[in-house]
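for the writeup, i need someone to sanity check this before i put it in the appendix. the sequnce is what the collaborator sent (i think, or maybe the updated version? ugh). structure was predicted straight from it, no edits. if anything looks off just tell me and ill rerun, i have time this weekend
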Amino acid sequence: MKILHCNEYGPIENLEWVDIDSPIPNDDEVLITVKAAALNYPDYLIVQGLYQFKPPLPFAPGNEGAGIIKKIGKNVKNFKQGDRVYFMAPYGAFAEEICVNAFGVSHIPTDISFEIAASYQMAYGTSYHALIQRGEIKEGDELLVLGASGGVGLAALDIAKAKGARVVAAVSTDEKAKICLEYKADDTVVYGKGPKDKEASKAFSTELKSKSLKGGYDLIYDPIGDCYAEPAFRSIGWKGRYLVVGFAAGEIPKLPINLALLKGASIVGVFWGSFTGREMNINHENIQDINLMLSRKEIKPLISKTYPMQNAIDAISMIGNRGVIGKVVLLNN
């Protein structure tokens, strides 16, 4: 079978497709023929050795996908050969086949395609955990989403609207703002290339705050960090919760901690990957609720592009350049 190997941490261009033997599932695993696998920003980081953990070399990037079960381990009871499933794995999805522990596998509802099934677990799982467990969002809350047209940002907007919140979407272009309005954002802020000096930062914060009907946000969802974080935090309301989701814009920001004191605000870390391992049952309940919202058409994952799996290197480079709206999915024939 073919698999996209990272043989050493470094530039995306160093990834290569290789042929290896088909893997054999252990007693608690299933072997899945991968039909679709979704791209996420961590895929760009992990092959460069920039993510929170480093898999043993060589490895394939990609941690969410969907396909058909080819073989099962002897301890696996809830699946059989031929089942349509989606899966989460630490890595390895950019391949023709993958072995996954059965705990990370779920049946695909009959009305959901492989592409959709592969695309929403990580983005919607992250955003659901951020908003529900970490942010404790409730109906009537006001939420600011930075990077709102990306995978996790658009998922946060989608979930928050389904839960009855008012949402302001902050994005880099008018095109991305239009997408967010189609997802029922109540207002938008277009920040271009972002504030580059003190005056621009102050103006950005003033604009963000002007979009809040409460004079400050109950929650701020930040997957981008960098120069956007401090001006966004200055727009938070009394007892607001600032959700630290990631740093897609590059630099890890250094926030003046006195702002938390002045606003009675909380800076709340969101690490969905660790949460899924530490609180597996709660994560399973989250995914069930996401599936229910999906079946009721309360949420609508956006797949902006699909590519053949063999074009994975180009697709990973594109997501690293922040050229993605919604999700990109790779397809095997």
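The chain has eleven helices and 15 strands. The chain has a mean pLDDT of 94.
thx in advance!!
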